[in-house]
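DATA SHEET
Item: assembly model
Revision: 1
Owner: S.N.
Input lines:
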Amino acid sequence: MHELSEWRKMQRIEWYLQSKIERALERLSYPKLAYSFDIPKIETHGDLSVNLAMLLVKEVRQNPRQIAQQIIDNLDIDSAHIEKAEVAGPGFINFFFSPQYLQKTVSNILEEGNQYGRQDFGKTQNAQVEFVSANPTGPLTIGHGRQAVLGDTIANFLEWAGYSVTREYYFNNAGRQMRILGDSVKLRYEGLLGKATEFPEDYYQGEYIVDIARKILEKHSDAFLNRPDKSLDIFKDSAETYIFEDIKGTLQRLGIQFDVYFNEKDLYDSGEIEQVIRLLKDKNLAYEKEGALWFRSTEFGLDQDRVIVKSSGEPTYRLPDIAYHRDKFERGFDLIVDIFGADHIATYPDVLAGIKALGYDDSKIKVLIHQFVTLYQGSEKVKMSTRRANFVTLDELMDEVGVDVTRWFFLMRSMDSHLNFDLVLAKSQSDENPVYYNQYAHARICSILRNAAEKELSYKNEVTLQRLEHLYEFQLIKKLLEFPTVVERCAREFTPHQLTQYLSEVSTAFHKFYTECWVLTTDKDLSQARLALCLATKTVLANGFTILGVAAPESM
RNA sequence: GCGCCCGUAGUUCAAUUGGAUAGAACGCUUGACUACGGAUCAAGAGGUUGGGGGUUCGACUCCUCCCGGGCGUACCA
């Protein structure tokens, strides 16, 4: 990995200002404390703003505006970067970028190209992201879709932050649900062969069960009819095989590739389940009561102890979950990200307690809980349940609106929010979806570049960038400048929706520039400079699209 | 009952984690190309941030009490 170049330090001009401010504080012998940089909402408030003076009031016991002025007086800032710094409002220090700095930004974005926006803070660290983790009992639904896209994109962000990332899918193909699944297929199989039996309500109702039964029938004819013996695992196993094939196909279509599919069963085969039990017992953190084995989770702040092995001898889900996370630690991950739906909210404190009990650092685990997708058909709410087969599959959604819209839609909202997904709206108004707005900006730039090539115009000389001085040019450059900061924030805080929002702002700034500033003119230097700005914009949009996993079309 | 999430414009959602005058999109009203893609741009209307109290220079954000919605609260996963 390369070290930060001089430019990259400047690219995050906050870092430059930070060191200058620090020195000023030393000179004034003011205490150092944590403050923040803001991008003001109002243009007259400058390009960057610092609230430091107001925070110093208690320590310094002076008027915050005076403090701010003293800090400014002791700043030794290069006017090639910052044109001016001034006190404003209750004591903000507002900084204004210089034109030279903004012009230089364009050429430097072009230099960094598809690396622009990458970060170093995860360098040499390994991260694991676990998501989807749906058991193979049916096709992926829209609910899974949100998690799949979130997980994949968060993994992308971590890669852009420098981490080496493992995408992992955890599943369990034993258990009661899988038995019911196998029995459901068996009944359908028998039904196809004319044996009329009642199909229980709590069995899997979906049409895909019949499809699987039909495939078995095609392959093996009636070989498994009237065979109530144990070999009937064929139904369960076939179901698992076919369904997993289907799930993987859906994920692939979404552009998602897992590095590891982790089967819960392996934790039993490898003895890790037993090891966890023994370790807990050795530490006196597990005890027998009423025929069950309990984990002393109250030692770790939980409201009551939890059963980890039932009196029947069967482990509860907690035990393999804990063993699985121990396995993650043993594989040496520095950062472990778990993505769950809101329905799993109650389970993760048990896992964290278990991990702590085993002596691992639970602060390495980041649990992300996303809220549900509520599906609407117009104004009518659709209840989803895999077993009742009352759902819209992820594949069906992609058939309707395409992959890019699907991904963007799931990413554009905070994961803390319930996502209302109106199918009618998504289908009928897909042309007005924000993803097209952004892709259109990209396609438009490509079109300009094609026209430029025909006219034999291209960006060659950095000196021409001085010609960029229109208000809309500066506004666009300032937006492009934010990209690395946005990527960092998204990666640190696991908030992909902030990138979708940011990219829309970039597109808006570009469309305004496009409307006001003609790119291909008879003034060759100006054309060059504006072409460079187009290229820089294209770079940011394309890099953003790459992270989000949507296409950057040359034309639409 | 308890835990977590949510409540912001007609609708769907943001708000750089405590900052300055709460912003977008859709929808609605009115405008803009004899040239780079009109899937665009400009202007307008639209708000007591669910409600009360508190913390401070400053609150959509933090604390507290209500109201409303979602998800949980197993020796189910």
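QC remark: Residues 524-548 of chain A form the longest helix (25 residues).
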